[in-house]
C-alpha cells in the first residue's frame, strides 16, 4: 500500500475536486480477451492545501474475482511552492513535501498488470503543472533486490518502471537499507510517453457513469432472463402437480395429442379392417 502522511498538514485545506473512473485490466499476455481479469474503481481527489496542492488516488478492486484481502490502496502526491527556506517542490510518492519517499503498491494477484504504470502516469501528469518544481528524491530499498524477492525479477521490473518516467538513480554507498536515490530533476523533465503506450496495451479506461449505466443494462437483462426462467419453472411445476394428481388422464391426453400415436392408431384400425374383410 502506498505510504500515507505521518503528520497532519497544519495549513488550511480547500474543498476537494473529485471524479470517479473505472479501469478494466487484462493480463499483458491476453490483452484482447473478452472478459477483463480485474476491474478497478479509482477516486481521483485534487485539493488545495495552504499554498500548495495534493493529489490522491484511491483505488479499489470491484470485480467478483477479487481476493479477500489486498483489494485497495491509496497513492498521494504533493506540491509545495517556494518559500524563504525551501524551493518549489513536487513529491510523487507522498501527500506531503517532507523528507525522502519510496513507493509500495500492493494489489494481490495483479503484479505485472501495469496498474502501477497507469497510476504513476496520472501522478506525473499532475506534477508537470509546475515545470520548474524540484522532484523530491525517491529511495530504493534493499528489500526489492534480495534474491527471490517478489518472484525473483522485481529489481528489473522496478528499474524499468522508473525509467519510463525519465527518473534515474544514483547508487548509495553508505547506507545498507537504501540502495539508491533518484537524481536531481525538475518536473518538466518527467515524461509519460512510454508509460502511456505501455498501459494502453492491456488497460481500458472507462468513464464511471458510463460503466454504471452499462452495468445497470446488463443487470436488467439478467433480471429479465431470471424472470423467464422462473415462469418456465412455475409452468413445469404446475404440469408436474397435474400429472401426479391424474396420471392416467394425463397419459391419455398425451397419447391423443401426439401425432405419431394417432398415426399408429390409424394404422391399427386399417389393419383390423383389412383383417376383418379377409375373414369374412
Write structural notes for this entry.
By secondary structure, the chain is of the alpha+beta class. It has 2 domains: 17-207, no CATH class; 215-279. It contains 6 helices and 10 strands; from the N terminus they run βββββαββαββαβααα. Strands 6-5-4-3-2-1-10 form a 7-stranded mixed beta sheet. A hairpin with an 8-residue loop joins β4 and β5 (89-91). The longest helix has 38 residues, at 208-245. The chain is elongated and about 130 Å long.
Keywords:
alpha+beta; 2 domains; disordered N terminus; coiled coil; transmembrane; transmembrane helix; membrane
Topology:
Blueprint: E1 17-25, E2 38-49, E3 52-61, E4 72-80, E5 89-91, H1 115-127, E6 134-135, E7 139-141, H2 154-163, E8 169-171, E9 178-182, H3 193-199, E10 203-207, H4 208-245, H5 247-256, H6 259-279
Parallel strand pairs: 5-6
Antiparallel strand pairs: 1-2, 1-10, 2-3, 3-4, 4-5, 7-9, 8-9
Helix pairs in contact: 1-3, 4-5
Radius of gyration: 33 Å
The number of domains is 2
What count of helical segments does DSSP give?
6
Order of helices and strands: EEEEEHEEHEEHEHHH
How many DSSP E strands? 10
Mean pLDDT equals 82
Show unreliable segments. Answer: 1-11
Coiled coil: 212-246
Region (Disordered): 1-20
Transmembrane segments: 255-275
Keywords: Coiled coil, Membrane, Transmembrane, Transmembrane helix
